[in-house]
């Protein structure tokens, strides 16, 4: 343990003199001053006049409590960077400490370079303060607008996962990840401590967790705040870390202690990486720091006789009545003047030169690091030509293939093409222990699963140099990928459909990030977040109701239309075409939903490219309107692989039993195309929508997810009430594949009955066909109970 009350000014690698300490404390005072000024002031930002109520913002927003600790860490990391020339990325778990990071990047000069209007003078400081948490300004968190950030932190739990993703395959990067002790209580963060089992010192960068224990959340104590140092050290040690504790409330003691801890951690990391890169792997643990300092440090000790510093009351705005309470106003002014702004900023409002020189130079500044603006580092992904993987289709609906297997072959070759001589690379697959299950196992022909713990003779495909990331946590897979993408690389997250919902709020937050990033010219485009949902609700009949849930589609539909895309490929070649597009795209979130099981295949690769480029098309070979040269009596539409099969089987039954009924079959692969062009960039224009669905013909629509999603999307289209959607209706169990569609009333027989109800005229043979469908449904129920499998005419059905 390194106790801040007992440490002197020497460290193991150099001298931290009293003058160094004085400079760092003055820089810290400047950062703290600007933090408070951003929270409170709309005018008189440098206190060149006595503070008056009209100088205070009408709404006080922001978080003071965590900010002093964040600024102290930033100051000492700056010193480490200058001494070692380290590339350092700062991940702020307590993202609500936004004013501290804005202040730090302003003091180092990055902020003014990115936003020239916030100049390095009194006028710039005025703008800096006035913009914070105000209309037309910037958010209160360490948001996408904050230089140096890849982590917003508004939703807690993901800091260490994002830090890990940034470190993978960036061998020269140190990611300093500050974790709030409140955030440390979340499930994702608790899982993230297992990183040493996956971080390879030979080819990856390093993550230095700094667990900031200031003792309180927004309304009460934290678990770690009330835990002993020994218990925290034991927990982290068991996860593969070697923690050092720094604690205290006297800045003149804590600063040298933290400086020593950072210096020692850097030296340990360097030794660990040097040994690994020389081929000498050791059992050494990665360093970590536990930092105990008071919440709201250097702020008001008490307010109205109630203790604030070191308690939850310091979390946000410790003095809330300053516009109306004279005593609060005077206390605020005393607090701000205690930092000595007149000695920190010169007469023009610029930071004094000896403090300005404390910042690293150029891109070594953490606010200017290209690792935090990953588009600057992104290389194009060399996606191979798809012809190598495409299935040969002689007749549609007659070939059966595991749909995702071709994607595994494509990913295998992407791994091979992007692996660097040191064993690193710039593409990774992230998956919760399901790579082989999802039929993507071809990747193991060129790499293994990443694993830094012991390997036995009975393991399959595990090695320290493996680069397939399998961990049984959707949170970690999603978070690792997000950090990987935002720092300049490419990847894919594959998950069982039902359990990707575990990480859906993370995807929502990433979408929000990309939504705002596109409005910032200085943020270079990053590779898209690609999520593959397989083992879907319709083919998880063997696992049962717990594994049957298509809700991620509904979660994604309302998000930013400039960012979100939802793809429902019906077969392997359309999956290849969509994957090619998604892997090459930037600044999007692509949700690809396709099952891993054997399915009928329909389109050649050329047909698939045309179909996917259009987003939807009429499958003339499946309908009858072309043969009779008449407008359709009913439109049969589908989106998704199982719905496509069922709508085609329904079309065939109608063709055979009611030959004079005119049908049109439409397949939708780009779900967001159903929206109007004013609502989504991929929205089908009015002409195309009519060409697909006509203006007034009823449409029977078989859909992969919940039927309400389609009804929501077609709102505003001509006569939307003519769309009759059958989808997943929350019926499921462990049963046969066809029984799943029967239970949810989306079977071919239900679709035929619906089409006969909705057709504009009753064709000859309609009554007999309806009776046949009802008998088949009754027979199905008896057959599956007796034989434990589907009827042969269903199980073995192909298009003819």
UniProtKB/TrEMBL annotation:
Transmembrane segments: none annotated. GO terms for molecular function: aldehyde-lyase activity; magnesium ion binding. InterPro entries: THDP-binding, Transketo_C/PFOR_II, Xul5P/Fru6P_PKetolase, Xul5P/Fru6P_PKetolase_C, Xul5P/Fru6P_PKetolase_CS, Xul5P/Fru6P_PKetolase_N, Xul5P/Fru6P_PKetolase_ThDP_BS. Belongs to the XFP family. Residues 26-376 form the Xylulose 5-phosphate/Fructose 6-phosphate phosphoketolase N-terminal domain. Pfam families: XFP, XFP_C, XFP_N. It comes from Rhodococcus opacus (Nocardia opaca). Residues 596-799 form the Xylulose 5-phosphate/Fructose 6-phosphate phosphoketolase C-terminal domain. Its cofactor is thiamine diphosphate. GO terms for biological process: carbohydrate metabolic process. Keywords: Lyase, Thiamine pyrophosphate. This is Phosphoketolase family protein.
